[in-house]
Amino acid sequence: MNVTEVTEKIKSIELFKDLILKDASIDSQHGMIKVKPRHFKDANKNEVKLGSSYSLFVAHMYQDSTEMEEFFYLTFNRRGEQRDYRRRSFYGIEHNRIFASGYSVEEIINDFERQLIGYSLE
User: Fold this and answer.
1) What is the pLDDT of residues 75-92, one digit of tens each?
2) pTM given for the model
3) Nearest-CA neighbor of 106 among 12, 6, 31?
4) Which of 3, 56, 94, 97 lies 20 to 30 A from 121 at CA?
């Protein structure tokens, strides 16, 4: 099992049809989905500026180790900046972050799909 199996299964999900994958290394792979930048105020009047892409990172750990059981994890998020109400400076945030993990490709995909229920790239 390797990370390309995980990323190919993720690409088969309708929400990820526009996923652009970079070349995979031995144990990890990056990808991104281009979207329009977004600038808005949230319910607490905080100003939020979101970037123009979502990023995906998939990693496979302990592949060759006999002591540890192999393990997959992934993160999916959109980076941006936030300025709290009545504050002057912005700070970095990860908007709509999803973290999924599992001991097999099926486990990590099931965990990821469960967290995607009701998720939108907007």
Assistant:
1) 999 999 999 999 999 999
2) 0.83
3) 6
4) 3
